[in-house]
Structures are given as structure tokens and as C-alpha cells.
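Below is how a single chain appears once it has passed through the pipeline. First comes the sequence as given, then the structure the pipeline wrote out for it. We keep one example in the README because the format questions we get most often are answered faster by looking than by reading.
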Amino acid sequence: MKRRTFLPILVGATLVLLAIVLAACGGATPPPTEEMTAPPEPTATEAPTATEAPADESGAAAYAVDLIAAWVESGSPETDAFDYTGVDGNTYQATFVVDIQPLFTQNNVWFEGSQACVGCHFAASENSYHQLNMSTYEGIMTGADSLESPPGVSILGQAEVGKGDFDWDHSKLRERLRNNRMPPGWEFDITEENRNGPCVEVGAEGATVKLGEYGCDLTAVGLIGAWVEAGAPNGEFAYGDATLTFERDVLPFFTQPSMWFDGSQACSGCHFAASENSAHQMDLSNYAGILMGADSLESPPGVSILGESEPGKGDFDWSASKLRARLRNNRMAPGWEFDITEGNRNG
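Resulting structure:
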């Protein structure tokens, strides 16, 4: 019985072993092979086309004040183009809307941080300073004080608003854009309370300046104005209820420091002689020099600062004088840094 049972077992084991051997020799399925494909042919690309370099218009630049001058001297056109000279000496064209109006309506145009002119001068109304509207062509043509003194006061040098006789060299706009208030260092006061300088008291002993006090009936500018309107005598004149003199009461405003505000420089510090070394060839240290005025070497016999049509003529006009304007008017836009070389005078 044991021998018969062993035989089938032996036969089965032999068959299993044979199957294993056959599988090892060739029964495994080979891995699939990938079909080789040809790489795509490169496509031709167009060579980049050369572009023309932008035209160099750096020479078309101009100083802001000179650009406005060209516009005014062309008749202040609203829509027509006008010619101006670039820094390279060539002639270019500009228009009011593109090139002039932004100088009055945008911030940071005149210097970094400068306020737009329209920030204070935005309408012909009581709420707008000097009832002046710098936001439109019509407003600029109307000028200042259009409600107080209709039809207005031209800022472009016209004898009368709308007359068309533009005179840029004598215009109020040119003066306010170029001329620093004197002496240098005045703090800008939007209320204009300090416009006539410090208050003064007058009496038998002469004039006493009240530094830091403004808006009084008697002021430094008023005192000088009374002297000029009296004929600019080298002697006595009346102001308030007192008799004053040029030497004691007028001259110190030009020759002594801290007469206009604490720390103000004496005018004669820069204007000390009728020479090339003195600013504007002007001597504010004595009576003769003040009467002679400015630019006596460049434009003899000089340019009166007291409102005379010519130095020595005696037709004094204090309200239209250069001295009054320089003592009262702040340069616009407010905040200009004083440059004694006047390198920034044209913007």
C-alpha cells in the first residue's frame, strides 16, 4: 500500500518541476517596444524687423516762463499752434491746451512739491484768491480782481482786459513767476497779512519797527510809500502823525538786518554798489544809489525802482514801482527756494 501511494506523488512532483523549468526558459512575455517616430522638422521663423529710433526731441525743451512768453507774444491763441524756440535754438510748435494750461492746473510742475496755481485761483469768485481763475483759457484772459475791479486786471500785460495789446515784459504774470519777494526768506502767508511788512510806530523820535506784528494801519511798506509819494526827499516827510526823515527812518530798512523779520538780511548785503559785483548793479546803501535804481551799467542811466519813467525825472509812481512789488509780492508758485544766482528764475 505504501509503494502505490508514493508513485503518483512522484509523478506529480516531476510534472510541476518540468513546468517551472519551461517557464524559466522561454515562457515570459517580452516587454513591448515603442515605435520610433521622426522628430518634427523645424519651422522657419521670420527675422525681427528693424524699427526706427524715436526722433530726438530733447532740443524741443524750453524754460516754462519762456514758453508762456512765446504764447503771449503770439497773441495768446486758444486753439491755434504757436512757435517757440527750444533749448537747441530751433523752432518748434506748441498749443495752449497741451503745453500752457498744464503749467497752471497740475501739481509738481514748477518744482518738486509745488502746488497747482488752480489750488488757490480756481474761479472768478470771492472764494478764489484775487478773484482769479487759472483753470480755463477764459479765466486767464479775464485776469485778476474781476469782481472788485471789473472787467478785471490783465495778468498778461494788456492795458485793459480784452484789448489784445499783450506786453509780456511788463505783465503781472511774468513778475509773479520770476521775481522773489525781498528780502529773501519771507514766510508765505496765504492770508497776505504780512504783505506790507511789519507794523511800525512813529513819534518824535522817529519810527520803531514791531517785528512779527502785521496788519496795522502803519507799516514798513506804508512808510516807504509815504516817502516816495512825498517826492522821495533827502530830508523830511510826514507819515502818520509824525515827521520822519530819510536818513533816520527810511534808509535803515535797506541797510540794517532784521528790519523786515527776525533774521532778515540787509538789502545792501547784495545791492551794495553800482558795479558788476552788486546784484542788478544796484546800490541800496545810500540815497543816490536808491534814486539811481537798477542796471545802471547795463541799461544807463538805470531802471527806476521808485516808479519813475526814467531815473531823475521825478514822476514817482509808488503803486506801480518795482520796489513796492518786490517788497510785497510773493513769487508763485509758493515755496520757491531762493537762488542768488537766479538760475531758477525762468522756471
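The chain is about 25% helix and 5% strand.

See the next section for the split statistics.
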